Amino acid sequence: MSDTPAPKFLGANTALPASPEAAELDYVPNPRAGQLYMVRFAAPEFTSLCPVTGQPDFAHLVIDYAPGETIVESKSLKLFLGSFRNHCGFHEDVTVGIGQRLFDEMQPRWLRIGGYWYPRGGIPIDVFWQSAAPPEGLWLPDQGVSGYRGRG
What we know:
alpha+beta; GTP Cyclohydrolase I, domain 2; four-stranded antiparallel β-sheet; two-stranded antiparallel sheet; 2 helices; globular; GTP-CH-I_C/QueF; EC 1.7.1.13
């Protein structure tokens, strides 16, 4: 029997957190600790609110990371990202804040996030952040989100 704690949210009926600050991210041991590889999460229907108008903003987020000792449990990440639905924030703050929180808590070897935001005021705003230069030898595929042409 393992003394590793079970994931907190998997298999449980879990309400959406009221805010990103209230959301709890869960991390589990990296099943391939010591191996250099990349994990990608794509959230093509991410939403938050404009801090000025309160209107919804939509984005396609792509989160790539090279795990260290832990990996983020995907249901907790889904709940965390969903908690932004009623959160007011500028695109830059939301995108960079998600990347920094994951990096600070999970402590991966490397992390990057691309926030491909749909137009606000007629201008799409894309925001990119990474923790540092990627580790030597890490395969970095393109994030696969085209420049704005209806994001189709």
